[in-house]
Batch of 4 targets.
Target 1
Amino acid sequence: MNRILAIREGGAVQRFHASPHLCHYDVAQHSWGMAAMLFVLNPDASRELIYACLFHDVAERWVGDMPAPMKWSNKIVQEEMHRTEERIERQLGINIQLTEIEQKWLKALDLLDLYIFCMHERAMGNTLLNKTEELCLKMLTEEPWIPSAVTEWVQNTLDFRRTTDWLTKDI
């Protein structure tokens, strides 16, 4: 297997395919979005965490993007999927070891990127993702493991959205 091509192909996997949405959303967009948010919210992040943001879903090229409700409702499927993804990541040389804090950052950014995707979908009229957006918001603002910089950004964004047309506002 050509490692460069295999890693690159991982970015083409369609995300969130089990829910109807208006915009294209693939692993490459998601991973880049996470790395960009990390740059702003945690500018001193380790190289490993940056790489993890970029490569954490590459294995989906072979296993797909399993819908979260399936993973949550079946621990056996979730564990087998995790083992398979780890094996693929090892084969590709992208099995990145993170500290516990870095793992929390990775999970929080993963959730934050989905939240922002849902916000944009709703702004364009797609109400089918409202429950997903609400769940993301609840987790991002109430879970104690979410890094404070992420929670603060979400709260500031909520305040901003209440007072302006946030989608068309200039930087």
Note: DSSP finds nine helices and no strands in the chain.
Target 2
Amino acid sequence: MYDNLDLVLYKGEQTKISFLDNTPGYLSELTSEGISQFGHYINGYLGSLKISITEKRIKIHDSSICKYYLGNNFKTLNKGDTKKAIEKISDTLHQPFNKSTVTRIDFSSNIITKYPANIYYQFLGEAQYYKRLEQNNGLYYNNGLRQILFYGKVHEQKEKKIPIPELYIGRNVLRYELRFRKKLKEQFRCTDLLAEKLYDETFYYNLIKRWKNEYLEIQKINSKLIEMRPTGSKKELIETLALFSILEIGQPKILNKISEWQEKKEITKKQAYDLRKSLKDLSKIKLNNNGNELIDELTNKIKQLSRYA
């Protein structure tokens, strides 16, 4: 389930060999060399991995370990393959990258869905502590430390003119990805986070659980309106009609409008909070016993993946 990993090996007890004198010769391609505020640096590639070297550290960044090891980033790496990939990097660069510090983790999986990926985005609402942003080929949830993504993997491959694996040709593939981008030691509550931890069984399965739970915490929006239930209550009728409007316009658009009012000082922070809470409460109302077919499909498949990953 690993894709991108940023790893930094610092010069110290683990290795005393000069990085600048020895490591560049093991790279498959050198791209630049110069002097920065951190001193002399050399940049290049090890296969598809971006490598940056100074006297004090070797950094692998903005690259898919999965693509390096398997030849493409359509798949993801389980804990066993991750161990082998890091061992391969260590052997090639002649450095103990199992002792490198992990500074970014992209944890993801492909979900084969009944419909194109973009059909599902409108039913994924707000998530606490994240800002929701819908793009042409993806739905993003951002905060200062993490990012949640949903996007069409086949569409991405076609845009980049990358061959699609035979297993996925002609199928709808939604990629669900959880990215840990900053302060990983604080997020995982550990004194250090070394690469060898990535294939520790407890750490790996806790990461799967977190991947599942981050999805479950996203508010799901009801949409399948078969019929209005009979009611003699004016309040219930008005709430049902309001829900129809939310579903028609889209909860995220209404929430964005409320944020706009607040930024313009047309309503107070307290009023904005109350309005957002009312919208979210309305979106939870069940109008039929069948629920949302698309969300049920997505939820069941994510739970199943987490169970057998």
Note: The two ends are 8 Å apart (CA to CA).
Target 3
Amino acid sequence: MRTIITRALLATGAACLVLAAGVEPMAATAVPMATAAGGLGLSPANASASGPTYFVLHVKPGQSSKATVLVTNSSSRAMSLTVRAVDGLTGQTSGTIFAGQHSRVRKAGAWVRPSVRSLTVPAHATRLVPFTVRVPAKSEPGDHVAGIAFQNRLVTSSKKKKFTIKEIVRNVIAVQIVVPGHAAFHPRLTTMRIGKVGATNIAAVFVGLGDRGRKLGAPTLAVTLVGPKQQRRRLVRQLDTLLPGDTIHYPFTWPVRIRPGTYHVVAVLRGGGEHVTLRRTLRVRNGASAAKQREAAFAVPHQDGTQPWQLVLLVGAGLGIAVTTSWLARRRMTTGRRVRPE
């Protein structure tokens, strides 16, 4: 499991551009540290230098557990922070992301209660923030993922030629709640289509996939494309974490041009000792370009977890500041957000 740092930028004026969208994912068994973004660092209070940089709490249904976050301000000015529990989610390119600061808490985030809703951390200082996890009595066994988001109330601005950039720093530390009992990862495939990634002309096979089980998993996805004149290509990609119960439409970017015509597509998802297969015959009316080197912008490259990914968004003033960790991208962070290549 990996934690995330979110940094959102609001550009006002003539420019309106998305620079990057990345979220730091969560591996199937361990989450990297919430590295300082803008001087804001988070870690478990009792962790050693080589110890865990996130929380894994084993809690039985109807019981509770307590832990403490160490909040560090390494910047030269005091930080006034809001503190809020958020849900863990599966990003579109797989990997764990976290819901936005104002998103309604619907899942495991509702089990997490920070002791404060706000705090001030002086420059070059630390503070301790205890929290409690209460697991409802009828909760299902398995992995449940939440996060505790710390967001700086201070909005900093810097002026460029034709626009102003406003920056908000948000850091999230992951809380993996393990409810004891029988649970397993069960891969599932739902849909397939061939299309283009966003507003680009980059070709992709969009595969609906997910985890119908109760444990985290990081499966492999193999896609075989047989096109006009029996042109055949098979690619295999290692995905990042899928959270229990989640389904995403994964954009499997394609390294060669997909031309108009009829394609026979086979997808195989393997994980947890199981595999599932989905076959479709798809008609492509408008072709799309090969992904080539640009594929990295849409696939999720593998990281060792030492650096979280940041979500950097430039949006028009009228759109407001959209801070999500889904992602953070929905939704890993491109300074510190995570992606895994094949």
Note: The CA atoms of residues 8 and 312 lie 5 Å apart.
Target 4
Amino acid sequence: MKIIGHRGAKGLAPENTLKSFTKALEYNVDEVECDARVTKDGIVILEHDDLMQDAGGKRYKVTDHTYAELVAIKPELARLSDVIDYINKTVPLQVEVKPDVDVAPILALLQQYFDKGWKFTDVFIGSSDMSVLKATRARLPTAPLVIIESWSGVRASWRCRKLNTKRISMSKHVLWSLYIRSVYRSGYELCAYTVNDPKKARRMAKYGLSGIFTDYPDLYQAK
């Protein structure tokens, strides 16, 4: 079963920061995941929400501000390029693109790495937004995609067939033994988010779960 660091190692360091990815790698994750957004000046940064908040509680919409303005608010703010360079193919990096994010600058950045010889399996896209997934498939026809789905297994498998991919990420709350087994037997690679209970993860793995996203990769270290 794959152990995938959620936003690096969200439970051990500030999420989507280099410190968080350092922690994830320290605990020997199989993959890491991050959230990507695009600033007003086209810089791809790692940020989960569309609004950033300063120490005084004031909120700033990512798309309305430049990278320089946002890093002044959040000094630990990382660019996607920083994280890709830091990980440097040590483990695969999954980049989640939210439905309200313009994927074009993200794909343009990834293309720079592919042009330098990086493989599609070194860094790839996941999304719950079909338009994001279609745009990625059009730009990168053979790249692996991750279908992110909160509740509908039928929709997830339909999107997999439509986009010719085998990877699905679903909320742990909607997964049950017969579904996990069925997906596994159909040849899909199913991962659950976010699972911070190793016992629960092991139970699901018995039915064919391929991996879990976790905030605490240290919990999955062999004792």
Note: The helical segments are 18-26, 67-73, 80-87, 104-115, 130-139, 153-163, 177-185, 198-206.
